[in-house]
Amino acid sequence: MAALKKDEELITNDSVENGEDEELDAVEEGETKDPAKKKKKKKKKKKAENGANAENEPTAVTNALEKIELAVEDGGAEGDEKKKKKKKNKNKSGKGPVKEQTNPPTIPIAELYPDGNFPEGQITEHGPAEGIDERTAKERFSSEEKRALDRLHQDIYQEIRHAAEAHRQTRKYMRDWIKPGMTMIQICEELESTARRLIGEDGLKAGLAFPTGCSRNHCAAHYTPNTGDTTVLEYDDVVKIDFGTHINGRIIDCAFTLSFNPRYDPLVKGVQEATEAGIKASGVDVRLCDVGAAVQEVMESHEVEIDGQIYQVKPIRNLNGHSIGPYRIHAGKTVPIVKGGETTRMEENEFYAIETFGSTGRGQVHDDMDCSHYMKNFDQQFVPLRLQSSKQLLNLINKNFGTLAFCKRWLERAGASRYAMALKDLCDKGVVDAYPPLCDIKGCYTAQFEHTILLRPTCKEIISRGDDY
User: Fold this and answer.
1) What tens digit of pLDDT does each residue of 138-151 get?
2) Closest by Cα among 283, 245, 237 to 263
3) 261-296 tens-digit pLDDT
4) How far apart are CA 375 and CA 351, in angstroms?
5) pTM for this one?
6) Please, which domain of life does this record's source organism belong to (predicted)?
7) Which pLDDT does position 64 carry in this prediction?
8) Distance CA 469, CA 258 (A)
9) Please, are residues 211 and 405 in contact by the beta-carbon 8 Å criterion?
10) Cα–Cα distance between 453 and 121 in angstroms, integer?
11) Which residues are catalytic?
12) How far apart are CA 367 and CA 210, in angstroms?
Protein backbone atom coordinates (compact mmCIF):
# COMPACT_ATOMS: atom_id res chain seq x y z
CA MET A 1 0.00 0.00 0.00
CA ALA A 2 2.69 2.52 0.97
CA ALA A 3 4.64 2.01 -2.24
CA LEU A 4 1.47 2.43 -4.33
CA LYS A 5 0.65 5.72 -2.60
CA LYS A 6 4.05 7.14 -3.40
CA ASP A 7 3.68 6.45 -7.14
CA GLU A 8 0.29 8.15 -7.31
CA GLU A 9 1.55 11.30 -5.64
CA LEU A 10 4.60 11.91 -7.85
CA ILE A 11 4.29 15.07 -9.96
CA THR A 12 6.55 15.66 -12.92
CA ASN A 13 8.44 18.89 -13.27
CA ASP A 14 6.93 19.50 -16.71
CA SER A 15 3.39 19.51 -15.36
CA VAL A 16 4.34 22.05 -12.72
CA GLU A 17 5.87 24.34 -15.35
CA ASN A 18 2.97 24.12 -17.81
CA GLY A 19 0.21 24.54 -15.15
CA GLU A 20 -1.37 21.21 -16.09
CA ASP A 21 -1.47 19.77 -12.56
CA GLU A 22 -5.12 19.50 -11.46
CA GLU A 23 -4.25 18.80 -7.82
CA LEU A 24 -2.31 22.07 -7.57
CA ASP A 25 -5.43 23.86 -8.72
CA ALA A 26 -7.32 22.00 -6.02
CA VAL A 27 -4.88 23.30 -3.42
CA GLU A 28 -5.65 26.89 -4.58
CA GLU A 29 -9.36 26.24 -4.18
CA GLY A 30 -8.95 24.59 -0.75
CA GLU A 31 -10.25 21.25 -2.04
CA THR A 32 -7.36 19.05 -0.89
CA LYS A 33 -8.16 17.75 2.55
CA ASP A 34 -4.99 15.70 3.22
CA PRO A 35 -2.62 18.03 5.21
CA ALA A 36 0.51 16.19 4.12
CA LYS A 37 -0.39 16.39 0.41
CA LYS A 38 -1.49 19.99 0.80
CA LYS A 39 1.83 20.99 2.34
CA LYS A 40 3.86 19.33 -0.43
CA LYS A 41 1.82 20.70 -3.24
CA LYS A 42 1.96 24.20 -1.84
CA LYS A 43 5.76 23.94 -1.76
CA LYS A 44 5.79 22.85 -5.42
CA LYS A 45 3.52 25.63 -6.51
CA LYS A 46 5.56 28.20 -4.62
CA LYS A 47 8.69 26.97 -6.31
CA ALA A 48 7.02 27.28 -9.72
CA GLU A 49 5.72 30.79 -8.96
CA ASN A 50 9.14 31.99 -7.81
CA GLY A 51 10.59 31.04 -11.14
CA ALA A 52 12.51 27.99 -9.95
CA ASN A 53 14.02 26.15 -12.88
CA ALA A 54 12.19 22.87 -12.37
CA GLU A 55 13.25 21.57 -15.79
CA ASN A 56 16.90 21.52 -14.79
CA GLU A 57 16.35 19.67 -11.45
CA PRO A 58 16.97 15.92 -11.69
CA THR A 59 13.67 14.14 -11.40
CA ALA A 60 15.28 11.18 -9.58
CA VAL A 61 16.54 13.46 -6.81
CA THR A 62 13.12 15.09 -6.41
CA ASN A 63 11.43 11.72 -6.28
CA ALA A 64 13.93 10.45 -3.71
CA LEU A 65 13.30 13.46 -1.48
CA GLU A 66 9.55 12.90 -1.70
CA LYS A 67 9.99 9.25 -0.79
CA ILE A 68 12.02 10.18 2.27
CA GLU A 69 9.31 12.64 3.39
CA LEU A 70 6.62 10.02 2.93
CA ALA A 71 8.65 7.46 4.85
CA VAL A 72 8.98 9.87 7.76
CA GLU A 73 5.24 10.60 7.67
CA ASP A 74 4.43 6.89 7.67
CA GLY A 75 6.24 6.53 11.01
CA GLY A 76 9.27 4.73 9.57
CA ALA A 77 7.36 1.46 9.31
CA GLU A 78 9.70 0.02 6.72
CA GLY A 79 12.76 0.98 8.77
CA ASP A 80 11.33 -0.69 11.85
CA GLU A 81 10.71 -3.84 9.84
CA LYS A 82 14.32 -3.87 8.64
CA LYS A 83 15.60 -3.41 12.18
CA LYS A 84 13.55 -6.37 13.36
CA LYS A 85 14.93 -8.54 10.54
CA LYS A 86 18.47 -7.42 11.30
CA LYS A 87 18.04 -8.26 14.98
CA LYS A 88 16.63 -11.65 14.07
CA ASN A 89 19.55 -12.41 11.79
CA LYS A 90 22.04 -11.33 14.47
CA ASN A 91 20.66 -13.96 16.85
CA LYS A 92 21.20 -16.61 14.18
CA SER A 93 24.80 -15.58 13.55
CA GLY A 94 26.21 -17.50 16.53
CA LYS A 95 27.50 -14.38 18.29
CA GLY A 96 24.93 -14.63 21.08
CA PRO A 97 22.36 -16.98 22.56
CA VAL A 98 19.62 -17.98 20.12
CA LYS A 99 17.14 -18.41 22.97
CA GLU A 100 16.42 -16.55 26.16
CA GLN A 101 16.95 -18.42 29.41
CA THR A 102 13.86 -19.15 31.47
CA ASN A 103 13.35 -18.12 35.09
CA PRO A 104 14.08 -20.34 36.93
CA PRO A 105 16.72 -21.48 34.42
CA THR A 106 15.86 -24.76 32.68
CA ILE A 107 17.40 -24.58 29.18
CA PRO A 108 20.82 -26.32 28.91
CA ILE A 109 23.66 -23.96 28.00
CA ALA A 110 24.49 -26.06 24.93
CA GLU A 111 21.04 -25.23 23.50
CA LEU A 112 21.54 -21.51 24.11
CA TYR A 113 24.83 -21.61 22.16
CA PRO A 114 24.33 -24.38 19.56
CA ASP A 115 27.36 -23.28 17.50
CA GLY A 116 29.66 -24.16 20.42
CA ASN A 117 30.98 -20.62 20.89
CA PHE A 118 30.44 -19.83 24.56
CA PRO A 119 30.92 -16.43 26.25
CA GLU A 120 34.51 -15.49 26.89
CA GLY A 121 35.55 -14.53 30.41
CA GLN A 122 37.11 -11.22 31.39
CA ILE A 123 40.37 -10.62 29.50
CA THR A 124 43.24 -8.85 31.26
CA GLU A 125 47.01 -8.66 31.03
CA HIS A 126 49.20 -11.03 32.98
CA GLY A 127 50.23 -9.68 36.35
CA PRO A 128 53.70 -8.08 36.54
CA ALA A 129 56.28 -10.63 37.68
CA GLU A 130 59.61 -10.21 39.40
CA GLY A 131 62.24 -9.89 36.67
CA ILE A 132 59.59 -9.43 33.96
CA ASP A 133 58.88 -5.86 32.88
CA GLU A 134 55.40 -4.57 32.08
CA ARG A 135 56.23 -4.15 28.41
CA THR A 136 56.89 -7.89 28.01
CA ALA A 137 53.47 -8.69 29.46
CA LYS A 138 51.78 -6.23 27.06
CA GLU A 139 53.60 -7.69 24.05
CA ARG A 140 51.90 -11.02 24.63
CA PHE A 141 48.65 -9.48 23.36
CA SER A 142 50.06 -8.70 19.93
CA SER A 143 52.56 -11.57 19.53
CA GLU A 144 51.60 -13.66 16.51
CA GLU A 145 53.39 -16.64 18.02
CA LYS A 146 51.29 -16.41 21.20
CA ARG A 147 48.11 -15.96 19.15
CA ALA A 148 48.92 -19.14 17.26
CA LEU A 149 49.31 -21.01 20.55
CA ASP A 150 45.94 -19.63 21.64
CA ARG A 151 44.28 -21.02 18.53
CA LEU A 152 45.70 -24.49 19.19
CA HIS A 153 43.73 -24.77 22.43
CA GLN A 154 40.35 -23.39 21.35
CA ASP A 155 38.57 -26.70 21.99
CA ILE A 156 39.73 -26.68 25.62
CA TYR A 157 38.83 -23.00 26.01
CA GLN A 158 35.29 -23.63 24.74
CA GLU A 159 34.79 -26.53 27.15
CA ILE A 160 35.80 -24.50 30.19
CA ARG A 161 33.69 -21.52 29.03
CA HIS A 162 30.72 -23.84 28.66
CA ALA A 163 31.16 -24.94 32.28
CA ALA A 164 31.60 -21.30 33.35
CA GLU A 165 28.35 -20.16 31.75
CA ALA A 166 26.46 -22.94 33.53
CA HIS A 167 28.03 -21.80 36.81
CA ARG A 168 27.18 -18.13 36.18
CA GLN A 169 23.55 -18.74 35.39
CA THR A 170 23.11 -21.15 38.30
CA ARG A 171 24.58 -18.80 40.88
CA LYS A 172 22.70 -15.81 39.49
CA TYR A 173 19.46 -17.66 40.15
CA MET A 174 20.55 -19.02 43.54
CA ARG A 175 21.79 -15.69 44.91
CA ASP A 176 18.23 -14.37 44.65
CA TRP A 177 16.58 -17.63 45.67
CA ILE A 178 18.43 -18.39 48.92
CA LYS A 179 16.67 -16.95 51.96
CA PRO A 180 16.92 -17.36 55.75
CA GLY A 181 14.61 -20.08 57.05
CA MET A 182 15.54 -22.62 54.36
CA THR A 183 17.26 -25.85 55.32
CA MET A 184 20.78 -26.42 54.03
CA ILE A 185 19.66 -29.60 52.26
CA GLN A 186 16.90 -27.66 50.49
CA ILE A 187 19.44 -25.08 49.29
CA CYS A 188 21.92 -27.69 48.06
CA GLU A 189 19.32 -29.76 46.24
CA GLU A 190 17.92 -26.72 44.42
CA LEU A 191 21.37 -25.55 43.40
CA GLU A 192 22.54 -28.96 42.27
CA SER A 193 19.39 -29.76 40.27
CA THR A 194 19.65 -26.37 38.53
CA ALA A 195 23.33 -26.81 37.71
CA ARG A 196 22.75 -30.35 36.42
CA ARG A 197 20.08 -29.10 34.01
CA LEU A 198 22.19 -26.24 32.71
CA ILE A 199 25.40 -28.22 32.30
CA GLY A 200 23.49 -31.04 30.59
CA GLU A 201 24.69 -33.75 32.98
CA ASP A 202 26.11 -36.69 31.03
CA GLY A 203 28.04 -39.15 33.18
CA LEU A 204 31.69 -38.16 33.43
CA LYS A 205 31.47 -36.00 30.30
CA ALA A 206 29.52 -33.17 31.94
CA GLY A 207 28.21 -32.44 35.39
CA LEU A 208 29.04 -31.19 38.85
CA ALA A 209 32.73 -31.15 39.76
CA PHE A 210 32.33 -31.43 43.54
CA PRO A 211 29.62 -31.24 46.22
CA THR A 212 28.01 -27.93 47.05
CA GLY A 213 29.79 -26.30 49.98
CA CYS A 214 27.46 -24.25 52.16
CA SER A 215 29.67 -23.69 55.20
CA ARG A 216 28.31 -21.31 57.83
CA ASN A 217 29.93 -18.83 60.21
CA HIS A 218 33.07 -20.30 61.87
CA CYS A 219 33.07 -23.23 59.41
CA ALA A 220 35.06 -22.01 56.41
CA ALA A 221 34.91 -24.90 53.93
CA HIS A 222 34.01 -28.51 53.04
CA TYR A 223 30.61 -28.65 54.71
CA THR A 224 27.61 -30.00 52.84
CA PRO A 225 24.65 -31.55 54.68
CA ASN A 226 24.38 -35.30 54.93
CA THR A 227 20.97 -36.98 54.72
CA GLY A 228 18.94 -36.17 57.82
CA ASP A 229 20.76 -32.89 58.57
CA THR A 230 18.07 -30.42 59.65
CA THR A 231 20.30 -27.32 59.86
CA VAL A 232 18.44 -24.13 58.92
CA LEU A 233 19.99 -20.98 57.44
CA GLU A 234 19.54 -18.08 59.87
CA TYR A 235 19.38 -14.31 59.31
CA ASP A 236 22.63 -13.80 61.25
CA ASP A 237 24.55 -16.50 59.34
CA VAL A 238 27.43 -15.86 56.98
CA VAL A 239 27.31 -18.68 54.43
CA LYS A 240 29.89 -19.60 51.78
CA ILE A 241 28.40 -21.12 48.60
CA ASP A 242 31.15 -23.07 46.82
CA PHE A 243 30.28 -25.35 43.89
CA GLY A 244 31.85 -26.53 40.66
CA THR A 245 30.86 -27.53 37.14
CA HIS A 246 32.84 -29.33 34.45
CA ILE A 247 32.82 -30.31 30.80
CA ASN A 248 35.08 -33.26 29.95
CA GLY A 249 36.92 -32.73 33.22
CA ARG A 250 37.59 -29.02 32.64
CA ILE A 251 36.57 -27.66 36.04
CA ILE A 252 35.15 -24.32 37.12
CA ASP A 253 35.79 -23.79 40.83
CA CYS A 254 34.04 -20.63 41.98
CA ALA A 255 32.56 -19.42 45.28
CA PHE A 256 30.85 -16.45 46.91
CA THR A 257 29.61 -15.42 50.36
CA LEU A 258 26.06 -14.49 51.32
CA SER A 259 25.09 -12.53 54.42
CA PHE A 260 21.72 -11.06 55.25
CA ASN A 261 22.64 -8.85 58.20
CA PRO A 262 24.45 -5.71 56.91
CA ARG A 263 26.85 -5.72 59.85
CA TYR A 264 28.87 -8.43 58.05
CA ASP A 265 29.26 -6.38 54.85
CA PRO A 266 32.79 -5.11 55.74
CA LEU A 267 33.97 -8.71 56.24
CA VAL A 268 32.50 -9.83 52.93
CA LYS A 269 33.86 -6.78 51.10
CA GLY A 270 37.36 -7.25 52.54
CA VAL A 271 37.57 -10.85 51.37
CA GLN A 272 36.18 -10.05 47.93
CA GLU A 273 38.71 -7.24 47.42
CA ALA A 274 41.50 -9.56 48.55
CA THR A 275 40.43 -12.10 45.93
CA GLU A 276 40.52 -9.40 43.26
CA ALA A 277 44.04 -8.46 44.39
CA GLY A 278 45.11 -12.08 44.02
CA ILE A 279 43.62 -12.28 40.54
CA LYS A 280 45.32 -9.06 39.50
CA ALA A 281 48.70 -10.24 40.77
CA SER A 282 48.46 -13.60 38.95
CA GLY A 283 49.95 -14.27 35.55
CA VAL A 284 52.51 -16.19 33.54
CA ASP A 285 55.94 -16.19 35.29
CA VAL A 286 54.47 -14.75 38.52
CA ARG A 287 55.73 -16.38 41.72
CA LEU A 288 52.99 -17.99 43.79
CA CYS A 289 54.30 -16.35 46.97
CA ASP A 290 53.85 -12.91 45.41
CA VAL A 291 50.15 -13.62 44.89
CA GLY A 292 49.84 -14.51 48.57
CA ALA A 293 51.55 -11.29 49.64
CA ALA A 294 49.13 -9.22 47.54
CA VAL A 295 46.12 -11.00 49.06
CA GLN A 296 47.29 -10.56 52.65
CA GLU A 297 48.05 -6.87 52.25
CA VAL A 298 44.55 -6.07 51.01
CA MET A 299 42.66 -8.34 53.39
CA GLU A 300 44.38 -7.10 56.54
CA SER A 301 43.56 -3.50 55.61
CA HIS A 302 39.89 -4.25 56.40
CA GLU A 303 38.11 -4.49 59.74
CA VAL A 304 34.57 -5.24 60.86
CA GLU A 305 32.59 -4.23 63.95
CA ILE A 306 30.40 -6.95 65.48
CA ASP A 307 28.48 -6.41 68.71
CA GLY A 308 30.55 -3.35 69.56
CA GLN A 309 33.90 -5.09 69.07
CA ILE A 310 36.25 -4.37 66.15
CA TYR A 311 37.98 -7.29 64.43
CA GLN A 312 40.70 -7.15 61.81
CA VAL A 313 39.90 -9.38 58.84
CA LYS A 314 42.59 -12.09 58.92
CA PRO A 315 43.49 -14.38 56.04
CA ILE A 316 43.11 -18.05 57.01
CA ARG A 317 46.75 -18.96 56.54
CA ASN A 318 46.33 -22.74 56.17
CA LEU A 319 43.79 -22.45 53.34
CA ASN A 320 45.00 -21.81 49.79
CA GLY A 321 44.09 -21.44 46.18
CA HIS A 322 45.33 -24.15 43.82
CA SER A 323 46.03 -25.19 40.26
CA ILE A 324 43.37 -27.25 38.47
CA GLY A 325 43.89 -30.13 36.04
CA PRO A 326 41.58 -32.34 33.97
CA TYR A 327 39.35 -34.26 36.43
CA ARG A 328 41.68 -33.04 39.19
CA ILE A 329 40.50 -30.20 41.41
CA HIS A 330 43.87 -29.87 43.21
CA ALA A 331 46.53 -30.35 40.55
CA GLY A 332 49.67 -29.89 42.62
CA LYS A 333 50.44 -26.18 42.95
CA THR A 334 49.08 -24.13 45.85
CA VAL A 335 48.39 -20.38 45.81
CA PRO A 336 48.93 -19.00 49.33
CA ILE A 337 46.89 -16.13 50.76
CA VAL A 338 49.64 -14.92 53.09
CA LYS A 339 53.28 -13.87 52.63
CA GLY A 340 55.85 -16.58 52.11
CA GLY A 341 55.15 -19.92 50.53
CA GLU A 342 56.32 -21.35 47.24
CA THR A 343 58.54 -19.42 44.86
CA THR A 344 57.31 -21.65 42.03
CA ARG A 345 56.10 -19.62 39.04
CA MET A 346 52.81 -19.82 37.19
CA GLU A 347 53.04 -21.08 33.61
CA GLU A 348 51.22 -20.77 30.30
CA ASN A 349 47.93 -22.64 29.85
CA GLU A 350 47.58 -23.42 33.55
CA PHE A 351 44.23 -23.15 35.29
CA TYR A 352 44.08 -21.73 38.82
CA ALA A 353 41.43 -21.30 41.48
CA ILE A 354 42.24 -17.97 43.12
CA GLU A 355 40.34 -18.27 46.41
CA THR A 356 40.71 -16.34 49.63
CA PHE A 357 39.27 -16.87 53.09
CA GLY A 358 38.97 -14.18 55.75
CA SER A 359 38.13 -14.66 59.41
CA THR A 360 37.38 -12.69 62.56
CA GLY A 361 38.87 -15.57 64.58
CA ARG A 362 42.40 -16.97 64.77
CA GLY A 363 42.91 -17.18 61.03
CA GLN A 364 43.59 -20.91 61.12
CA VAL A 365 41.24 -23.87 60.57
CA HIS A 366 41.09 -27.45 61.81
CA ASP A 367 38.98 -30.55 61.03
CA ASP A 368 35.63 -30.59 62.80
CA MET A 369 32.05 -31.95 62.53
CA ASP A 370 30.79 -34.93 60.51
CA CYS A 371 32.61 -35.57 57.25
CA SER A 372 30.63 -35.28 54.03
CA HIS A 373 33.27 -34.67 51.30
CA TYR A 374 35.29 -37.51 49.76
CA MET A 375 37.48 -37.94 46.71
CA LYS A 376 39.35 -40.82 45.12
CA ASN A 377 43.11 -40.48 45.45
CA PHE A 378 44.33 -39.30 42.05
CA ASP A 379 47.80 -40.85 42.38
CA GLN A 380 46.88 -44.07 44.15
CA GLN A 381 47.90 -47.22 42.30
CA PHE A 382 45.96 -50.50 42.40
CA VAL A 383 45.13 -51.64 45.92
CA PRO A 384 43.76 -55.16 46.53
CA LEU A 385 40.44 -55.13 48.37
CA ARG A 386 39.11 -58.01 50.45
CA LEU A 387 35.60 -56.82 51.18
CA GLN A 388 33.09 -57.38 48.39
CA SER A 389 31.16 -54.31 49.55
CA SER A 390 34.33 -52.19 49.13
CA LYS A 391 34.82 -53.46 45.60
CA GLN A 392 31.19 -52.67 44.72
CA LEU A 393 31.41 -49.19 46.22
CA LEU A 394 34.67 -48.48 44.37
CA ASN A 395 33.05 -49.56 41.09
CA LEU A 396 30.15 -47.18 41.77
CA ILE A 397 32.61 -44.35 42.53
CA ASN A 398 34.63 -45.02 39.37
CA LYS A 399 31.51 -45.06 37.22
CA ASN A 400 29.83 -41.94 38.62
CA PHE A 401 32.63 -39.70 39.89
CA GLY A 402 36.02 -40.99 38.75
CA THR A 403 38.57 -38.75 40.44
CA LEU A 404 36.07 -35.94 41.05
CA ALA A 405 34.91 -35.19 44.61
CA PHE A 406 31.59 -36.53 45.89
CA CYS A 407 29.53 -36.60 49.08
CA LYS A 408 27.35 -39.12 50.92
CA ARG A 409 24.17 -37.65 49.44
CA TRP A 410 25.56 -38.29 45.97
CA LEU A 411 26.46 -41.90 46.80
CA GLU A 412 22.85 -42.47 47.84
CA ARG A 413 21.60 -40.73 44.70
CA ALA A 414 23.74 -43.15 42.67
CA GLY A 415 22.11 -46.12 44.41
CA ALA A 416 24.51 -46.93 47.25
CA SER A 417 23.07 -48.20 50.54
CA ARG A 418 24.68 -49.46 53.74
CA TYR A 419 28.00 -48.22 52.47
CA ALA A 420 29.49 -46.82 55.71
CA MET A 421 31.85 -49.76 56.36
CA ALA A 422 32.94 -50.00 52.73
CA LEU A 423 33.64 -46.25 52.58
CA LYS A 424 35.71 -46.45 55.77
CA ASP A 425 37.66 -49.38 54.32
CA LEU A 426 38.45 -47.43 51.14
CA CYS A 427 39.63 -44.47 53.24
CA ASP A 428 41.75 -46.67 55.50
CA LYS A 429 43.49 -48.20 52.49
CA GLY A 430 44.18 -44.78 50.92
CA VAL A 431 41.99 -45.41 47.87
CA VAL A 432 39.63 -42.60 48.87
CA ASP A 433 40.52 -39.49 50.90
CA ALA A 434 38.13 -37.86 53.36
CA TYR A 435 37.84 -34.05 53.52
CA PRO A 436 36.09 -33.07 56.78
CA PRO A 437 34.67 -29.57 57.36
CA LEU A 438 37.35 -26.96 58.14
CA CYS A 439 36.54 -24.65 61.04
CA ASP A 440 38.03 -21.70 62.90
CA ILE A 441 37.16 -21.06 66.56
CA LYS A 442 33.47 -21.17 67.43
CA GLY A 443 31.77 -17.78 67.57
CA CYS A 444 33.85 -16.22 64.80
CA TYR A 445 32.77 -15.53 61.21
CA THR A 446 34.48 -16.46 57.96
CA ALA A 447 33.96 -15.40 54.34
CA GLN A 448 35.19 -16.70 50.98
CA PHE A 449 35.40 -15.60 47.35
CA GLU A 450 36.89 -17.54 44.47
CA HIS A 451 37.35 -17.39 40.69
CA THR A 452 38.87 -19.75 38.13
CA ILE A 453 41.44 -18.13 35.86
CA LEU A 454 43.19 -19.40 32.72
CA LEU A 455 46.70 -18.21 31.88
CA ARG A 456 46.47 -18.10 28.11
CA PRO A 457 49.66 -17.42 26.11
CA THR A 458 48.33 -14.00 25.07
CA CYS A 459 46.39 -12.92 28.17
CA LYS A 460 44.81 -13.86 31.46
CA GLU A 461 41.17 -14.93 31.20
CA ILE A 462 39.03 -14.80 34.35
CA ILE A 463 36.74 -17.52 33.06
CA SER A 464 34.16 -17.54 35.84
CA ARG A 465 33.73 -13.75 35.98
CA GLY A 466 30.10 -12.59 35.96
CA ASP A 467 27.98 -9.51 36.53
CA ASP A 468 27.66 -10.42 40.21
CA TYR A 469 31.35 -10.64 41.12
Assistant:
1) 788 888 999 999 99
2) 237
3) 999 999 999 999 999 999 999 999 999 999 999 999
4) 20
5) 0.79
6) Eukaryota
7) 41
8) 12
9) yes
10) 9
11) 242, 253, 322, 330, 355, 450
12) 19
